[in-house]
Amino acid sequence: MTFAVLSIIPEEDVGLRTASAILVTPDNRYLMQLRDNNPEIPFPDTFCLFGGHVEVREDPEVGLRRELHEELELEAGDISYFSQLVFDAIYADGRIRQRYYFEIPIDPGVINTLVLHEGAGMRLMTAGDIAEETLRFVPYDLAILRMHMLIREGHFRNAGVEDRAG
Predict the structure, then answer these.
(1) Containing domain of residue 94, as a range?
(2) Is the dihedral of CA 104, 106, 111, 115 positive or negative?
(3) What CATH code is carried by the domain that includes residue 18?
(4) What's the whole-model pTM score?
């Protein structure tokens, strides 16, 4: 684990904890998952970040590593905590959701070796691709992706924000 991740609210107050991977190539492309076109799931047929449910008392990074192995057979190397969102799921049951985001560098050559076990597909996307498909993105993942892009482009140089532009 890179460091302890601060939890904004107590775990017992959260209805669902998840962790997601910002899988980004050196040339700033993002590996996205296309969700199944199933009306029984939230946001069907939309793009999202890979990841999933964090078990009770499971460290978010450990949970993300497990999910990436289950979904893609990916053994993630370097993982850096990026941010987290806490929100009420007004689109579903209204319970509190806590979603942790981690940046994971990925070599484009590795992508062809991944085995997709969840979702309808995966796509390597540029910022332009993401902009064109904005309405087909899970909203909270889109917001985090935009923040990630802005930081990598050097738009934020505050003392509290690590320079991730490389």
Answers:
(1) 11-152
(2) negative
(3) 3.90.79.10
(4) 0.86
User: Is there a domain that residue 60 lies in?
Assistant: yes
Number of domains comprising the chain: 1
- DSSP characters for 14-71? -SEEEEEEEEE-TTS-EEEEEPP--TTSSSTT-EE-EEEEPPTT--HHHHHHHHHHHH
- DSSP-derived letter for residue 164 is -
Beta bridge partners of 32: 123
Q: What digits encode the pLDDT tens for the residues 61-103?
A: 999 999 999 999 999 999 999 999 888 877 777 777 889 999 9
Burial track 53-66 (b if 16+ CB lie within 10 A, e otherwise): ebeeeeebbebbbb
Type of residue numbered 13: D
